[in-house]
Amino acid sequence: MDVMEFLIIVTVGVVIVAVAFLFPDREVRGRHAAAEQAGEPAVESVAAPTTLEGALVAQLLASEITSGQYRAAVARIAERDDERNPLKFG
Predict the structure, then answer these.
(1) 2, 28, 53, 80: which sits with the fewest CB atoms below 10 Å from its CB?
(2) pLDDT digits over 45-56, tens only?
């Protein structure tokens, strides 16, 4: 097998993988179709954050807080964690 055949095989493989990622998931399409038939909006369930950091990230992504507010809150969390659980060397 020469280099040209190898590149063709690799290119075909990359195209197949790319096309597979472009098609929506059948399960998701089925839920959307069932919701449309029932007259309900199709809503994807999103897991609620389980940590304070996760809640802050969710607020940041939803534009409920600014990046400055996020950084200040994370800094306060780090300070509180350092007071509660100081790192000991030696």
Answers:
(1) 2
(2) 567 888 899 999
Q: How far apart are CA 69 and CA 74, in angstroms?
A: 9
How far is 42 from 25, CA to CA, in rounded Å?
14
At 67, which amino acid appears? S
Contact 60, 70 (CB under 8 A): yes
Q: Where do the H-state alpha helices sit in the chain?
A: 3-22, 26-38, 52-61, 67-84
Q: Which residue has the tokens 């038939």?
A: 37
pTM of the model: 0.47
Count CB-CB contacts under 10 A for residue 77: 14
- Name the residue with tokens 């990230």: 57
Which tokens sit at 11?
């290119």
Structure-token pair, residue 3: 């280099």
Token readout for 86 is 């100081």
